[in-house]
């Protein structure tokens, strides 16, 4: 099924927003920056997203939804589940590096709507991971999920700051 040009344009704006937010952050990005990156006028952005905040939340929601889908696509037994979920996330991070940055930026924004979106996204990932780990029979499931998520967030921060020694212990 082919998307309509309106759907394509909204997608282009969303992708431009992802790129600009990842590069400039939430507070330093304007809809004019996003419009320029998308090659459109600023008022045209507002045809699809009423505010910069709405666009950011749509991009953040996409990032969390992709993570959930990547985890749902993992087929593994108890012994391999965590490793395969990590591998799925690493692959996703390579394919969509702007979304990694967006997650880090998203947890630093103080506006309630953005905080709520970040909370909702992280909570849905936690809930899914908890259920998946329980179904796999992983012991100490609460602790294992907390560690799994904490390592993922640490990986995001390491990537965002270009500080790999946070993860591998070795300086560049």
From TrEMBL:
Pfam families: TetR_N
Keyword flag Cytoplasm: no
InterPro entries linked: DNA-bd_HTH_TetR-type_CS, Homeodomain-like_sf, HTH-type_Tx_Regulator, HTH_TetR
Keyword DNA-binding found: yes
DNA-binding segment(s): 30-49
Annotated Gene3D superfamilies: Tetracycline Repressor, domain 2
Molecular function per GO: DNA binding
The protein's name: TetR/AcrR family transcriptional regulator
Source species of the chain: Halalkalibacter oceani
């Amino acid at each position: 099924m082919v998307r309509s040009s309106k759907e394509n344009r909204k997608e282009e704006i969303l992708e431009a927003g992802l790129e600009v937010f990842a590069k400039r952050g939430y507070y330093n990005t304007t809809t004019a920056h996003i419009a320029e990156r998308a090659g459109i006028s600023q008022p045209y952005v507002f045809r699809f997203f009423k505010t910069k905040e709405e666009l950011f939340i749509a991009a953040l929601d996409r990032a969390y939804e992709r993570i959930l889908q990547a985890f749902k696509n993992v087929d593994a037994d108890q012994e391999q589940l965590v490793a395969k979920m990590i591998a799925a996330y690493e692959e996703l991070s390579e394919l969509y590096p702007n979304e990694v940055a967006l997650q880090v930026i998203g947890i630093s924004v103080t506006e309630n709507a953005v905080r709520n979106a970040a909370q909702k996204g992280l909570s849905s990932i936690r809930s899914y991971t908890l259920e998946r780990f329980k179904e796999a029979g992983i012991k100490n499931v609460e602790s294992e999920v907390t560690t799994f998520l904490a390592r993922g967030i640490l990986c995001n921060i390491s990537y965002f700051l270009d500080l790999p020694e946070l993860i591998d212990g070795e300086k560049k």
